[in-house]
Amino acid sequence: CRLDPYDGFPESYLIHGGRTPNNEISSSLYLLTTDSRGCNRKLTLRCKEKELVGEVPGARYGHTMSMVQSRGKTACVLFGGRSYMPAGERTTESWNSVVDCPPQVFLFDLEFGCCSAHSLPELSNGQSFHLAFAREDCVYFVGGHSIASDSRPPRLFRLRVELLQGSPLLSCETLDTGISISSAIITRTGPTHRYIILGGYKADSQKRMECSTVILDEKGIHFEPLEPPKWTPDIIQSRTWFGSSLGEGSILLA
């Protein structure tokens, strides 16, 4: 999750969870900051673990984190992901089996690390490797994969977060303009809320070769088709995607 520079603080990133090559799943939260001050403009990276208290999200991967702003306050929204089966349900045969995490929304502030969990009736099924786009007090969850049904339903939810004095108020709405997609790459194309979706999967063995532009405004979220790049034969023939956003409209694919 990227944090824009504010109040003299540099650009920074939140990193939560993830799966290691040893099949360990983390529940840690880190704040990665960048500093390029000085005459030689040398880039310095600093990483600090952040402690959370309260209703803390468990270890997971394949989830999203987004920043929302409401009533002059800022908070982080965490949703989705998958993890190992609960300890009481695991057997020798299913020891490394993963399941969708319960569809709770976790909300926490970065200053004090206070975390709360919220269940909403519209979010009744777990999902992983979905997309999340945030603008002001709204987060849009797009697509995703469900282990329970082994499918990528064209889901689209709009989560609204009001950071009231005392307890936050969350509401969710199901929209009918979603797309079937998982594990796609998002890159922002400028200071406004415009993004490009590239890559991802329509099915386990079917890559999504189309591209889309996503626009967030005061009316909601809008998807527009975008002409894809001229794919190389290696990318066309490969069954997998591997890549990441490089920021400001650039994407690295391998």
UniProtKB/TrEMBL annotation:
Q: Which domain of life is it from?
A: Eukaryota
Natural source organism: Gerres cinereus
Q: Key word Zinc-finger present in the record? A: yes
Extract one GO molecular function annotation from the record: sequence-specific DNA binding
- GO BP, sorted A to Z: chromatin organization; V(D)J recombination
Q: Which InterPro entries match?
A: Gal_Oxase/kelch_b-propeller (IPR011043), Kelch-typ_b-propeller (IPR015915), RAG2 (IPR004321)
Q: Which PANTHER family match?
A: V D J RECOMBINATION-ACTIVATING PROTEIN 2, V(D)J RECOMBINATION-ACTIVATING PROTEIN 2
Q: Which residues form a coiled coil?
A: none
Protein name (database record): Recombination activating protein 2
- Gene that encodes the chain: RAG2
